[in-house]
Design brief:
With 609 residues, the protein is an alpha/beta fold. 35% of the residues lie in helices and 22% in strands. The protein binds 2-deoxy-2-amino glucitol-6-phosphate (AGP).
């Protein structure tokens, strides 16, 4: 998620904007920039990398301390690699506007083609540069920037939070939002715009939350908010923020992990943006020139491995592609690789794109001449750069060491990939594709509604089971991957021993461990495997094992705790199971006083063997 700041007031604006960007650093970024107007010219100073690089550049500018209005940006790359030319602010061809943007303009390529036909030139790969020139183009036929913004934002489809300055009035901030956060801070003789409250919390606690489809126009002493469709004035409710700076960076949540669990509906939405074509198929142009593999090797570590294991059921069921799922640290040390470049494809999954074992596996596959696809969250990461093709998961930076929204974003991309291959192979039954796509598209709203209820139940159960010394997590079919993930989450967050197992394996030894002090968390969804899972539950009960059953229907069994959740279509039910496993581990760890966001011994990205 990019960070936006805007300031207009009585202070030197650039230091205030820079400080605002520093308070947004926690959101993660790979380039930054600041823009302002001076002597009837718009200036932008930008740099790749961290804010210190930008600071060095600004310190050489003589105008830095005189301007009292500026906009700033930290960029989390979605379109275009993290280089200075792609950093924000972007300036229009006619140098009349500069703009910073958070979000994705879905139809930017179409708009860009139209502008190129009108003689516009582009110097970056970003949708943002297209947007600023679209606004400049519309400005030619409108009485003022506000009217030009209205027309331009009707043409731009997708998500945006923007802030812009115009050369003619460089002390006035213009801002607008659609499906991306933007907050207006109201000071005395000064006003602020930002993606998030921490950017200006040290100056003012009085805020107005802009809503989708609203445009803000603000100078140092006044502001107006308009509806972008008809420019009708909107009366806004000013609010006073009580949060501390640290709490504000977590959006008011206790931990980044909790914030990121609640971000998952948006992550699914962002992952599907631009990927579903009128319920008729999935759009993955990145893969159109690759042949369809006859065998898929999925290679990853940790949570990413669990996402891959879960997806193997989709590739086999929806696309009829056999999958070999491998732990990267095992794959890389095989004696012999039975990979066939003509038939195989290696799919590596990595949130960070820097995991050493997964990167090594990718390199081995390439040495074998096998086509490689990377599913990554970090644009420009090593795996993203070295894979033949990269598919970005658009989850935004994941701050908490325990991976949550990243797995959901990976599952979203993997589901799209399975549908894509099923469609290309023409093996998806008639009408099934539309049903799956609609079920996927419904997930964000349904999950948004379900998360608070899940969190409450997780909190209740966590207090009841927090003293357990060991836990089994059990599942069958695609739920086996979720059982592994649930056990990993409990282990890495609460330091309680937990084992994820295929439920059918219990009778082959593990059931010897069951006693009243060794509870089991059983995932029992309403599918063809339920009768078998039910038998496993009965076996555990016969040995006085305590059981939590996580289910999406009225199970016909009596156990210690039944946790009801919404049902999904087939394996898509996993999108409702996963947050429960995350909430439960989070609440146990928090209740036990563990360092939830930075568990002991763990690193966010394991770049060593
Ligand atoms: C998951 O909660 C862990 N943080 C860890 O297992 C992680 O998933 C694993 O290290 C893989 O990381 P990657 O996705 O960045 O490659």
């Amino acid at each position: 998620m990019c960070g936006i700041v805007g300031y207009t007031g009585h202070r030197p604006a650039i230091p205030v904007a820079f400080e605002g960007l520093e308070h947004l650093e926690y959101r993660g970024y790979d380039s930054a920039g600041i823009g302002y107007g001076f002597q009837n010219k718009l200036e932008v100073v930008r740099s790749a990398g961290k804010l210190k690089n930008l600071s060095e550049k600004i310190s050489h500018s003589t105008t830095a301390l005189t301007v009292t209005c500026a906009i700033g940006h930290t960029r989390w790359a979605t379109h275009g690699v993290p280089e200075e030319r792609n950093a924000h602010p972007h300036i229009s061809n006619d140098k009349s506007l500069i703009l910073v943007h958070n979000g994705i303009i879905e139809n930017y390529l179409e708009i860009k083609e139209n502008l190129v036909r009108k003689g516009y030139t582009f110097h970056s790969d970003t949708d943002t540069e297209v947007l600023v020139n679209l606004i400049a183009e519309e400005r030619k036929n409108q009485p003022d920037l506000l009217h030009a913004l209205r027309i331009a934002l009707q043409k731009a489809h997708g998500a945006y939070a923007i802030c812009l300055l115009e050369r003619e009035n460089p002390e006035i901030l213009y801002a607008a939002r659609m499906a991306a956060p933007l907050i207006f801070g109201i000071g005395i003789g000064e006003n602020f715009v930002a993606s998030d409250i921490p950017a200006f919390l040290s100056y003012t606690r009085n805020v107005v939350f802009l809503e989708d489809g609203e445009i803000l126009v603000a100078d140092a002493n006044s502001y107006s908010v308009y509806r972008s469709d008809d420019l009708a004035c909107v009366q806004k409710q000013e609010q006073c923020i009580q949060w501390s700076m640290q709490a504000a960076q977590k959006g008011g949540f206790r931990h980044f992990m909790l914030k990121e669990i609640f971000e998952q509906p948006q992550v699914i939405k962002d992952g599907l943006t631009g990927r579903i074509r009128e319920w008729q198929g999935v759009v993955l142009p990145e893969l159109d020139n690759l042949t369809i593999p006859r065998r898929l090797h999925i290679v990853a570590c940790g949570t990413s491995y669990h996402a891959g294991l879960w997806s193997s059921h989709l590739f086999e069921s929806w696309a009829r592609i056999p999958v070999q799922i491998e732990i990267a640290s095992e794959f890389r040390y095989k004696e012999r690789f039975l990979l066939d470049p003509a038939e195989d494809l290696v799919l590596v999954i990595s949130q960070s794109g820097e995991t050493a074992d997964t990167l090594a596996a990718l390199r081995i596959a390439r040495e074998q001449g096998v086509t490689t696809v990377g599913i990554c969250n970090v644009v420009g990461s090593s795996i993203a750069r070295e894979a033949d093709v990269v598919l970005y998961t658009q989850a935004g930076p994941e701050i908490s060491v325990a991976s949550t929204k990243a797995m959901t974003s990976q599952m979203t991309m993997l589901a799209c990939l399975a549908i894509y291959y099923g469609e290309r192979k023409q093996v998806l039954e008639e009408g099934r594709e539309e049903k799956i796509l609609r079920a996927l598209a419904d997930l964000p709203k349904r999950l948004e509604e379900a998360l608070p209820v899940m969190h409450t139940e997780a909190k209740r159960l966590s207090r009841k089971y927090a003293q357990a010394k060991s836990f089994f997590y059990l599942g069958r079919g695609h739920c086996f991957a979720l059982a592994l993930e649930g056990a990993l989450k409990l282990k890495e967050l609460s330091y309680i021993h937990a084992e994820g197992y295929a439920a059918g394996e219990m009778k082959h030894g593990p059931i010897a461990l069951i006693d009243p002090n060794f509870p089991s968390f059983v995932i029992a969804l309403n599918d063809r495997l339920y009768p078998k899972v039910k038998s496993n539950i009965v076996e555990i009960q016969a040995r006085q094992g305590h059981i939590i059953v996580l289910t999406d229907f009225n199970v016909d069994i009596k156990v210690d705790d039944i946790w009801q959740i919404p049902s999904g279509m087939g394996a898509l039910g996993a999108f409702f199971v996963l947050p429960c496993l995350q909430f439960f581990s989070y609440e146990v760890a928090d209740y036990l006083g563990k360092d939830v966001d930075q568990p002991r011994n763990l690193a966010k990205s394991v770049t060593v063997e």
